[in-house]
Structures are given as C-alpha cells and as structure tokens.
Amino acid sequence: MADPELPEEGELVVCTVQSVKNFGAFVTLDEYGGREGFVHVAEVASGWVKYIRDFIREGQKTVCKVVKVDEAKGQVDLSLKRVTEHQKREKVQSWRNMQRADLLLGLALEKSKTSKAEWYEKWGDVLVEETGGLYEVFEAVAADPEIFEKRKIKASWTKGFAEVAADNITPPSVSISGVLFLTSSAPEGADHIREALIACEKVRGVKVQVMGAPAYRVSVEAPDYKEAEEELKKATTKALDLIKQRGGSGEFKREGEKA
C-alpha cells in the first residue's frame, strides 16, 4: 500500500530549496510535511549546467515533478527541467488557493465550534471529492449560497461557511462571445433591430456591443462553458426570431467564423 505521506510519480509538487551542491539540490516538499526530496543536477535544466546556482538557489520556492519514489527508503527524486512555466504557475496558484482555503475553513467553522476533523469526516471529504478541492467548495458556495439547503445539509456551520465564502471568494466564471448580424429594409427597421437587441440582452449574463451595423457583438458570462453556451444560444435565438417576425433577416457567428 502506498505511503499517504509520499507523492506519486508524475505528480507536481511545491518545494522549498534547502541545500544546493554541485551534484544537485536537496528540497523539502511543502505539501508533504516537509519531507525531503532530491533534484539531481541532470534534472535541473536542459543541456549542460555549468553553475547549478544559476538555476536553483537556497531558500527558493519552486515546482518540481516527481520522477521516482522509493517507498522503502522514503526517497523522492525530482525534476525541475520537466516542469513548464505554465504548469509552474498553475501549481503555485493551486497551492496558494489550498492554503487560503484552509484558513477560510477555520474562520467558517469557528462560530459553530466545529472541528476541521469532524467537518471533513461528516461532510468535507464528500464535498471536496465532488468539486475537486477545498477552495472549489468555497467557490461553489460563493456562486450559489443556497447550495447546502439544496443538498439538504442541515448543520450549524453552514451559515458561517456561506458568509465567509461570500466575503472572500469571487465565483469562477467563463466568457464566450459571437457576432450577431441583423438587417431590415422596413421603414421601422432600425426600431425592429433595437427590439431584437433588447430581447437578446434580457437574457441573464448577456451583453450587446455595437460593432457597426449590421454587426453586433454578443457576449455572455456564466459559471461554466455549458451554461454560457446555453445562455448565448437562448439570447441570439430570441433576437433572430424577433427580427424575422418583423420581416428582417439575421445570422449569428461565433468569434472567428466568417460571416
């Protein structure tokens, strides 16, 4: 059985560099109780490394990839060169979110006198597994303050959790857009187009921007892509149906498509 205090091969881990030698660097794994790991000089950077401290220094916090785990010896071999800048940024942000979420959880449970251990055992493990992480639980609650009620979770900590989420977390969102082309040769054509755009913008999260007749940019912001696509389709369909009812014509194209 794998040691729960050891990372898995291929995993990205946040590290603090403790000691740098010519043959490599010794680091501690911040997410694993300060367990030690080692980055061989061959895994520090691509190509020949003349001065290892040009790439890694004592006290530096960085992200490494786990290349080998020896459970019997408790040894973790790491690579710095196998981590892209994009992966590094994402991992550091995820780690910071995790730390922040843990602090927020303490605040959320404080008033109800609920311990973190009890919270995780009765509710937290399930919520974290479903959302993907503790920070994601806070995001879900910030986006929908009634989520606990909908899930029929009745506990003294839910009110404090919702309050902390509302005060500290900005709900995640995505934005998509496209171009709506509306034309009308009727005497009241301009009014008809205006009606169609107003109908479009009444859909939740939708904004309309005039690009220059007959083109109008339609954008929508929603918690996820599925909902964003649904709202965008609903809004543009309303506009197209209305303009066609008035004798005009229209077409919708996603950004990048040719009209």
Produce a short descriptive summary.
The mean pLDDT is 92. Helix content is 39%, strand content 26%. By secondary structure, the protein is of the alpha+beta class.
What's the helix and strand layout?
Elements: E1 12-21, E2 24-29, E3 35-40, E4 61-70, E5 75-79, H1 85-110, H2 116-131, H3 134-143, H4 147-150, H5 158-168, E6 174-183, H6 189-201, E7 206-212, E8 215-222, H7 225-245, E9 249-254
Parallel strand pairs: 3-5
Antiparallel strand pairs: 1-2, 1-4, 2-3, 4-5, 6-8, 6-9, 7-8
Helix pairs in contact: 1-5, 2-3, 3-5, 6-7
**Whole-Å distance between the termini?**
59 Å
Strand order of the largest sheet: 1-2-3-5-4
Q: What is the helix fraction of residues, given as a range?
A: 25-40%
Low-confidence segments, ≥5 residues, pLDDT <50? none
The mean pLDDT is: 92
Shape: flat
**Fold-level CATH name of the largest domain:** DNA polymerase, domain 1
Residue fraction in strands: 25-35%
Domain tally: 3
CATH architecture of the largest domain: Orthogonal Bundle
Oligomer: single chain
Number of helical segments with 4 or more residues? 7
**SSE run:** EEEEEHHHHHEHEEHE
Radius of gyration of CA atoms, rounded to a whole number: 26 Å
From the structure above, extract its key features.
about 260 residues, alpha+beta, OB fold (Dihydrolipoamide Acetyltransferase, E2P), DNA polymerase, domain 1, Alpha-Beta Plaits, 3 domains, 5-stranded mixed beta barrel, 4-stranded antiparallel β-sheet, flat
